[in-house]
Amino acid sequence: MKVSFARRRRILDIVATDATFERTEHRGQEVWLGKCLHCNAYLVIGLDGEPISRATIEHIVPQVHGGTDDLGNLGLACARCNQGKGTRHDRHFRRDARVRDIVDRLLARRRERWRDPDEA
């Protein structure tokens, strides 16, 4: 399924600020290859921002609990991890310390992976 231009642009913004993503050749085409914010599985993104693998945009602090579209709160995750977090954890964010720990770890991982967009 093709994603909208705005979504592809946002994915490319995340790629530009995530040091795990590198431009490389994959199956005969130039792509961005990086890692899921959760499990480190490889994610493949076309140079136009179209996910080739099942990459999704992860809101680390859930939107329903005040999470924003700020790049520091966004990462790329495989669909399985993103759906699992959303289904099992996001609704419990405010009242479950374990869920807040998960979010804190993901925010720390995002900061560790951060790169200046001009370096991409």
Automatic annotation (TrEMBL):
UniProt-listed InterPro entries: HNH_5, HNH_nuc
HNH nuclease domain segment(s): 26-83
Pfam families: HNH_5
UniProt-recorded name of the protein: HNH nuclease domain-containing protein
